[in-house]
Amino acid sequence: MTLTPMEQFEVKPLVAEPLFHIGGHPIYFTNQSLLMVIVVIAASLFLTLTVKPGRLVPTRGQSMAEASYEFVANMIHSATGEDGLKYFPFIFSLFIFVLFCNFFGMVPGSFTVTSQIAVTFALAALVILLVIVVGFMKHGLHFLTLFVPKAPWYLLILLVPIEVISFLTRPISLSVRLFANMLAGHTMLAVFAGFVVALGSAGGVFTGLAIAPMFLIVAIMLLELLVAFLQAYVFAILTCIYLNEALHLHDHH
Amino acid sequence: MELAAAKMIGAGIACIALVGAGIGIGNVFGSYLAGALRNPGAAATQTTNLLLGFALCEATGLFGLVIALIILFT
After folding, report:
1. CB contact under 8 A, A237 and B52
2. Which of these, A76, A80, A55, lies nearest to A65 by C-alpha position?
3. Which of A62, A129, B3, B24 could form an SS bridge with A58, CB 3.0 to 4.6 Å?
4. Do A233 and B55 touch (CB under 8 A)?
């Protein structure tokens, strides 16, 4: 028996023929695309079907939808202030998409969309492009003072390149953080599941010992559920923080 | 040296990055607890910062783990 913990991250086309071609590259409908479609449908249904206006006592579903709305609204308000609420639809969709992707990935046998660097980097690049566009639209060329902190000129020679590099590495760190957490967590689960199978099939005393990694999997699963939520939250709040810098430059709101 | 053996050793070395994550997460929760016991009234307001610090800290260590996994399984 061989351990293949990375097998779960393989992107396989579900339909043999490519859907269409972009610049000569065939575009397939993969298991990843399927999971993304499911996530979008589930999230839309969750946020629309549960909420009905005019209910005196909200149902459980409506409470959850409203709580997630208020949670993100409070987060944006505390991180970017009043004028950040304009970007609420973007950040809320981002948060819900990442959260649902992470949670759907926790279902055994499914596929974790956010464990693909292509997906997370696309999301992070979108965030950074939005930050740059918003910054230039609000401040014009004055936006470039973001890279010039208040310091004597001889320190600026050192500080400006550091600020520029730290700004340019943001999409990388934002995407790799989410991708690494998901990849590491799911690989860990698969490795421990491999222990259970190996011990269970070993026979004799070892079959009974297989219960120990089994309980460990349950504990790790709980940790991973926390991480799944936390990473969606971190992704959203870092988006808010970057947006705040573009909106207010150095002065705090 | 055999390529497979070198890969295993490399993956093991890459996992040292997790030492930093362990120290960092311990520091985050330890400092939070120390602060919260001095001023319990302000503790509840800082839970978002606590979770943010935990997640950022954990991620830096996981970068190393991902390198190890990539070395091992690709």
Report:
1. yes
2. A55
3. A62
4. yes
- What is the average pLDDT value for chain A, to the nearest integer? 87
Given B52, B63, B69, which is nearest A234 (Cβ)? B52
A196, A199, A205, A207 alpha-carbon torsion, rounded to 10°: 50
- Tens digit of each residue's pLDDT (9 = 90 or more) over A2-45: 567 777 888 888 888 888 888 888 888 888 889 999 999 999 99
Q: What is the pLDDT of residue A251?
A: 67
Question: Mind telling me how many Å the CA of A233 is from chain B's nearest CA?
Answer: 8
Cross-chain residue pair A6–B58, CB shorter than 8 Å = no
Alpha helices in A107-210 (DSSP H): 117-139, 153-168, 170-200, 205-209
Cβ(A217)–Cβ(A192) under 8 Å?
yes
Q: What is the pLDDT of residues B14-71, one digit of tens each?
A: 989 899 999 999 999 999 999 999 999 988 888 888 888 888 888 888 888 888 878 8
Q: Concatenated DSSP letters for A13-49?
A: BSSSS-SEEETTEEE--BHHHHHHHHHHHHHHHHHHH
Residue A101 identity (one-letter amino acid): C
Rounded to the nearest 10 degrees, what angle do helices A88-106 and A211-248 cross at?
170
With an 8 Å Cβ cutoff, are A230 and B54 in contact? yes
Which domains are delineated in chain B?
A: 3-73 (1.20.20.10)
Token duo for residue B54: 């935990």
Residues of A in contact with B15 (CB under 8 A): none
ipTM above 0.85, yes or no: no
| Separation in Å, CA of A184 to nearest CA in chain B | 7
In tens, the pLDDT along A104-154 reads 999 888 888 998 889 999 999 999 999 999 999 988 888 888 888 888 889
